[in-house]
Amino acid sequence: YIDVGVVRGVTHNGVTEIGPIAVHPDHQGKGVGRQLMTTVESRAKGGKCTVGIVSCRSDVIPFFEHMGYEVSSL
Question: Nearest 5 degrees, angle CA 64-CA 67-CA 71?
């Protein structure tokens, strides 16, 4: 049994914070991350979703931009 991927979504005050999201390296590039994001977004209880990215993981930003998210800083 191998875990293919995992995602977490928590809703506070109408905003669902998504993350972390991870896909096993053997399954990356096969649409698993997109499927995880679509699932967590569809189950979100808030009207808005956000994703927090650790500054050292700037390599994942294009994935989230492709999913329709915009980069902003706090």
Answer: 40
The pLDDT tens digits for 18-29 are: 888 889 999 999
Give the list of residues 6+ apart from residue 52 with CB closer than 8 angstroms, or none. Answer: 17, 19
Q: Enumerate residues 6+ apart whose C-beta is below 8 A from 1.
A: none
Half-sphere exposure in the Cβ direction for 49 (13 Å, CA): 18
- Per DSSP (E only), the strands in 1-74 are 5-12, 15-23, 48-51
The rounded average pLDDT for each run of 10 residues, N- to C-terminus, in the chain (74 residues) is: 84 87 92 92 82 74 88 72
pLDDT for position 45 = 77
CB-CB contact of 26 with 59 (8 Å)? no
